[in-house]
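Because discrete structure vocabularies remain unfamiliar, we first show an illustrative case, written as a sequence plus integers encoding its fold.
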Amino acid sequence: MTSPIAKPWLFSQPNQDPLAATGSPLRWGIIATGRIASLVSQDLALLADANLYAVSSRKQETADAFAAEFGFSVAYGDDAGQQGYERLLADDSVDVVYVATPHAQHHQMVLAALNAGKHVLCEKAFTINAREAAELIAVAREKKLFLMEAMWSRFLPSMQRAFDIAGSGELGTVQWVTADLGFPAPYSPTARLWAVRDGGGALLDLTVYPLLWALGTLGFPQAVSATGALNDDGVDAQNALTLEYRQGAQAQLTSSLLAHGPRTATVAGSLGYLQSLGSINNPKQLVIGIGREPLRTEHFEVAGRGFAYELREVTRCIQQGLTESPVMPLEDSLNIMRLFDGVRAQLGVGYPNDAH
């Protein structure tokens, strides 16, 4: 048995350094200047074949400050006639765009980027719903442009090793998976994590990570049941998902914006189990227990903050003329949004984008 998630090209190479160039430099544009844009830009600057070219924000001074901090050549803010992101997309020097806006703006920004002829890496969750995802995928394929959801954890050495172990048979037949991710997020109706207009709630922001452990070891489920706690604004403050599979395997996934959790994942099989240590989106250790044998611990380090691995994949794919990554294929992003649509229907969570 192999993992349902493909192994990144990098890990089949003699040199597995994600920072080493794989072709001609690409000129990157970053849309938005929030925390995730800052973190990704730091790792992007480490790639030998990445040119930090342009950044956009609503305010020119914000774009200028971001460009100065991270070394971008050009900064675009809103002016009288165009928004900052529109000005960036009109720049013919931009090869590929990273969209780092809140979820609810992904569809608008990615669609504009594709229509401007840019390759796109879009922050997770890919969109608000499956309808939006299907439209973006159709446009990208029509225009033969690269498009990928920025699910960085798929590309990490520790995650890929966990998928390898689960798929190798060492654990026997995988019967159940558990994974949790939670932290208490200070409430504000306008904060990205809570705002209905932004696609707030635990599901779209956090559940992608616990779900990855199920997808990487068991694949997509046959059925999903969900419970959750909604706040007065109608977004999920926490949720619990049970995934069911044909052979009787199950996965229990928990996400919370209310409470700290251990942030661990367990993959349990008929012969043994695997458990992650360190946050489940970037494990630093894997503990493997087979029968009554002594526990085995494997340790992992990452380049930069860990985003370099997905950035290497995007860069390599574009350099080689690919329009999607085999590790994070567009069909997976679409199926994840379909799964989340079903969960939201069970929880009773709706967003303004659903009405468009």
